[in-house]
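During the reporting period the student researcher (J.K.) took over the structure-prediction task from the postdoctoral fellow and processed the backlog of single-chain submissions. One of the processed entries is reproduced below for the supervisory committee.
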Amino acid sequence: MDKGKITLLVIIALLLAIQILDRSREPEQMLAFAERIEESQESLRQQQVEFNIIVEAIKEKGIELTGGGKGEGGHVDPLRDGKPKLYANFLLPHNDGHFNPTYVGGTLKVYQSSPKGLNPIVENSATASDANGYINDSLCSFHPRHPQLWSEGLATSCIISDDYLTYTFYLRDEVYWQVPEIAKKSEFEWLNKKVPLTANDFVATFETVMNPDVECPQKKAYWDDMESVTALANNIVQVKWKVKVYTSLNTSMSISPLPRHIYSFNEKGEEYSKEEYGLAMNKHWFDEMRQAVGVGAYVLDEFTPDKVISFKRNLDYWGRGYHFDRIEWEGLVKDQDPQLVGFKNGDVHAHGLSPTQFKSEVLDRNEPRFAAREVNNPKAGRAGEFAWEQVRSRSYSYIGWNMRSVLFNDKLVRRAMTYAFPKQRIIDEVYYGLGRPQVANVHPDSVYYNPNIKDHVFDLKKAAALLDEAGWKDSNGDGIRDKLINGQKKDFEFTIKYYASSVEWDSTLIIFKNQLREIGVVMTPKSFEWKELLRVYEDKDFEAVSGGWRFGLEVDFVQLWHSKYAEEPRSSNHCGFKNKRADEIAEKLRNTFDQEERIKIAKEFQEIIFEEQPYTFFRSGEGIFIWQNTDKGENNKVLGVEEGLDTYHPLYSREKLLWHLSKE
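J.K. obtained the following structure tokens:
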């Protein structure tokens, strides 16, 4: 039966209902009837939108569409394999098979540095991203067992059309925004209401990111080619792109909604004008009050900077989520050694050993509660009272050179810095073998990695020769290289800024400092707390800085390396890298969907980065993960960790879906 016949039958049935209305209750019944008519019309409008999309696809491609998870007889739709394709709902059904209601309970405690804030648009730190991941959800998601495949999230269906220019999402029903804690106060009573998620909340995200006054270059880098986000109906979101770009896949499906019922208003509940909104978003009153809301598995319970951030289970959550009733980030203890003491005392459930601690606690056997290392058995650490395992991470560390500086605006100088950095020695002596040398800007485990690039192996003679070639020589015999800059003698002296709570960076920079001094360069390390170091990155307030990046399985080079972001406030291109050919390649990569061609492009880009050395690339992430393996009190032992390590993708193996606390 087609939609026209269905509509006609609905109208006839409603007309018959009018004829039998009890006249004594006519006003009340007519009001209810009008409400049902409005609901029916809205439903029909939504059905018509979906129907039009399908018809358009059939006309253009002459193929059959699918939008469901299971077909007749309960068979899984073969098109729903998680791999993006045109004119079919390819999303894997939402997977909550990990969840066991008997495991629910307890508070998972870990050490975690505080982000500067939790604004989901303007904040650009991994900790802010992690926090918002607990609080909010995105249109689509992925499972840690197969992170390269897309699954349902807030959307139950995604149909891509127009040769990857249009993405149409159908939202799940009965999803509601969390009510913020401050809504309990009388002055914020206007927030104390149950607000449903709608397509307009995704429109709000787009309009905010694209607002020229909003400082979020890390997002604009991926959204610049987006044409629009439109609410076709309350439960239908359509994303359109100006051009076909590969990053449209991840960007479109990763959009999280913005609570426009909060961010569009001032603290009195008065709506901002268009002129006011952008600037207000950069320092919003809601963020200043340490608040955050979403539609995710957890509700923000407390945010006291540098002390604690805690999350409690969202009882109205549409999905299953983790097993823990609460998750607590302890931020008061910042240094590595006190954190290890806290772990041993049972203050936190999971943590990580620094390389120095790994040597002392495990390799030198100073803590028998950690099982001994066995060269041929990578799982040997699981047997101890404190379990441990060596794991890789999807990250790398580096030293960044401010290319705006007269010291580092010459690639010969930057290459000299890399030759003077004893990378392998530091990995062996400071990190005790944890990690591999990072050569360029792609992780060595990635399919996009260029193995043909040969690293600049430590060589002080080459470093000195390059500095000579760049014009930095010791003109007065004082042991410090210098150069005439605008008629003034400039000594080669600089400060490097780094994270204060890392004894490894302390040791690394002492070694580097001594090597540089041998060739007439003076480097002064200066440490900063994490929030202040974030400001250093965002304001480009450094000559040299240590840093690290975390990334996904795909690669994109625009955010970190494109020239247009070199001078943008808060941009990720904090070193000011500019290269016309690199810009062209980064843009070409975005326009290429064939993986083999993408690999070729990515390899060429790495060659340019390696030649220019905006970073001295240091070490791909690797560390020692530890967790409580024996009960020392209520809800102390963490279970499910080993299953995740064994079954999940190796770079996502510590995802907490399977974790739960012992109730013995």
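The committee noted the following: Residues 67-96+113-332 form a domain with the D-Maltodextrin-Binding Protein; domain 2 fold (CATH 3.40.190.10).
J.K. will present the remaining backlog at the next meeting.
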